[in-house]
Amino acid sequence: MIRAAIVGLGWWGKTLVESVRDSNSDMHFVAGTTRTMTPEVQAFAEKQRLRLAANYDALLADPAVDAVVLATPHSQHAGQVVSAAAARKHVFCEKPFALTKADAEAAVDATRRAGVTLGLGYNRRFHPEMTKLRDRIRSGGLGTILHVEATMTFPNALMLKPSQWRAHRDETPCGGLTPMGVHAIDGMIDLCGAIDQVYCQSFRRVVEVDADDTTSILFRMKDGMSGYLGTMTATGPGFSFQVFGSKGWVRLEGMTHVAGASSEERRTRLFGACRFQPTKGEAEVWQAASLDVTRASLEAFAKAASGGPAYPIPVEEMVHGVAVTEAIVRSAASGRVEQVST
C-alpha cells in the first residue's frame, strides 16, 4: 500500500482522491495541502480523513508519506518533481508534465538519480478501448496507418474568472491544449510514434478571460503518417479519436472532463460509442466498457512504486510529449511549421 499526499485540492485534486478512496486500492491518500485553504477544503479533508499540511515542504518532510500526487499549476510541475525526488518521494504528476522540454528532462533526471517512480496522468491510455486500438494497429489490423485525428471540447473556459490560474495565458497556452489536447497528443505518440513537426493556429473568439478558445493543430509523424487535433473550450463537451489505415478506420467517441460534473462521471464516462469501418464489409459498432481510468492510472503508479511492473508510460515519451507541446506553442506564435526538438 502506497501512502500518498495530494498537492492541490481544486476540483481535479479532489477527483484524484475520490478515485481511490475505498480500502481495496493499492494507494491510499493520507495527507494533502493546497494554496487556498477554505471551509470547503477542510470539510473535504475531514470526510476523506486527510491530514492537511501547511505547505508542500511539510509533506516532503513527512515520513508517513511515500508519494506525492501533483494537481497543481502546470508551470510548477517540474520544480515540484525535482523537490519530491530530492526527498526520496515517488511522484505522480498531472498533465501536462511540464511546459518546456528542458524542464521535463531535468525532472526525469532527478527521479532517475533518486531511484523513485515517476507517473504521469495521461489516464486515457489505460482504457481498454485504447488497448484494443493499440493491439489492432500493431497486429496490422488497420494496415498502413495514414492519419490520426482527435477533437476535444468543453465549456469550462466560459466559466473561468480572471483570478483563476487556468485563466492565465502563460499557464494554458493555446487554449484547450494543456487541459485537454495533450491527452490526444499522448495517444498519437503511443499509437503512431514520435512526432516530427507541427503547425498550430490558436485564437480567442468568445471567452471573456485572456485565453484562446479555438485551437487547431496539424502534425507529421516521423514514420510518415499525418495528424490533426482540434480543441475548443467554449462549446459543448465531447471527445473523438480516430485512426485511419489502409484496411479501414476506428473511431472512439466519449466525453471530456467537464467542471461541475460528478466525480464518477469525470472518471468513468470518457469513452462511449466505438466503430470500426473496414475498407470492405460491414461496420462493427459497440459501446465502450465503463472504467475508472483515473483510478487505473494511480494504481499502476502505486504498483510501480511498490516494486511491481514499470509505469506504462515510458519517461522518454513523457519528455517527447512536452517537446511536442512546446513546438505547438512556438508555432502558434510564429505562424510557421515548427520542428519538434529531439
Report on this structure.
- With 342 residues, the chain is of the alpha/beta class.
- The protein has two domains: 2-123, NAD(P)-binding Rossmann-like Domain (Rossmann fold, 3-Layer(aba) Sandwich), CATH 3.40.50; 127-295 and 322-339, Dihydrodipicolinate Reductase, domain 2.
- 33% of the residues lie in helices and 26% in strands.
- It is built from ten helices and 15 strands.
- The chain has a nine-stranded mixed β-sheet with strand order 14-13-12-11-7-10-9-8-15, covered by helices on one side.
- Helix 2 (39-48) links the parallel strand 2 and strand 3 (51-52).
- Helix 5 (101-114) runs antiparallel to helix 10.
- It is globular and about 60 Å long.
- The mean pLDDT is 96.
Give the arrangement of secondary structure elements.
Layout (H helix, E strand, L loop, with lengths): L1 E6 L3 H9 L7 E7 L5 H10 L2 E2 L3 H5 L6 E4 L6 H10 L3 E4 L7 H14 L3 E3 L7 H11 L6 E9 L23 H16 L2 E9 L10 E8 L4 E7 L5 E8 L2 E7 L8 H6 L2 E8 L5 E4 L5 H13 L9 H20 L3 E2 L3
Parallel strand pairs: 1-2, 1-4, 2-3, 4-5, 5-6, 7-10
Antiparallel strand pairs: 7-11, 8-9, 8-15, 9-10, 11-12, 12-13, 13-14
Helix pairs in contact: 4-5, 5-10, 7-10
